[in-house]
UniProtKB/TrEMBL annotation:
This is MAPEG family protein. The lineage of its organism: Bacteria, Pseudomonadati, Pseudomonadota, Alphaproteobacteria, Rhodobacterales. The chain crosses the membrane at residues 57-77, 84-106, 112-130. It comes from the Bacteria. The keyword Cell inner membrane does not apply. It is found in: Membrane. It comes from Roseinatronobacter alkalisoli.
Amino acid sequence: MTPELTALTLAALLQMLQFLLFAIPANLELGTNYTGSSRDYAPDKPMSKRTARLQRALNNHFEGLILFGIAATVITISGQSSSFTAACAFTYLAARILYIPAYAFGLNPWRSLIWAIGWAATLLMLIAALL
């Protein structure tokens, strides 16, 4: 497996961990009657700030993972894996790992800087695939 696909697999496992980091407190705060329902209505009470931030961080990773998945797949299928693209892939992964606590604890502007590093790493992989 290429380093880019290894990073993609680890990023997918991170996404699963992120889901648990959000789902457990959400179930405790909102109750399983609500979280297990069809959620046709808003909950009776809002989630805590931290749990809501964990949900937004989870959703953000879904968005970033699409582009990173494309980058890792294109690099691998086209046989363009290099030390540069591998470094970009693991930079993306490291940024996503750091993004979770940065968002959960409201570390601004660090959260945005960490996000930008991961985004730039993905962009550089996509550009490398075209060159």
